[in-house]
Amino acid sequence: MRFTSGLVLLVSALSVAALAPRAKRQTTPPSAGDDSGVIISPSDGTSVTAGDPFDFSVQNSPRYSSICHAPWTPVHVYLLAAKPTTADLNSTFGFSEYLYYFGDYILNLDGIPPPPNDPTAPPPPILTTPNLGTPFSGSTVYIAVVEELSQCDPLEDHADYALDSRALAYTE
């Protein structure tokens, strides 16, 4: 009788654990400077001047592409005063404090149209450096890309986003 009762309790406990929702981890992709990151260009240390264009290129996060292959991925592009961390992101995968917001774009990986509420434009190949004012001239600013991975299977063990950044030398 004890063996049967113990077995029933063990099976019940395992069943409850198996049905419980798994928490999603929030981790960062390769660090800045790692050429396997989300940002392809600009590279770390690129000099940018207010009003001038600079090359911009992003790709689907290599760290998560083997785990999550969605047909499209929303990305959000910011210019920040400090090197970003995942702790700086708010509940909508954005930054509450930023110097400039370049916008929302979509990486279309399979040519399938994105859902109606997602942005539809791909990231532009060139961005223009905003005028941040004299206080920032000669300082390091950071271009940051937040890639949403919300199209992934929720049972997969992945983050909700990938964050990558590059340091830029800003002059006015």
What features would you describe in this structure?
By secondary structure, the chain is α+β, with helices and mostly antiparallel strands. It has a single domain (29-171), classed as Immunoglobulin-like (Sandwich), CATH 2.60.40.10. 13% of the residues lie in helices and 31% in strands. It has two helices and nine strands, in the order αββββαβββββ. The protein has helices at residues 2-19, 62-65, and strands at 39-41, 46-49, 53-55, 57-58, 72-80, 100-108, 126-128, 139-148, 161-171. Strands 2-9-8-5-6 form a five-stranded mixed β-sheet, with no helix packed on it. A two-stranded antiparallel sheet has the order 1-4.
Brief summary of the model shown:
Keywords: Signal. This protein has 172 residues and is of the alpha+beta class.
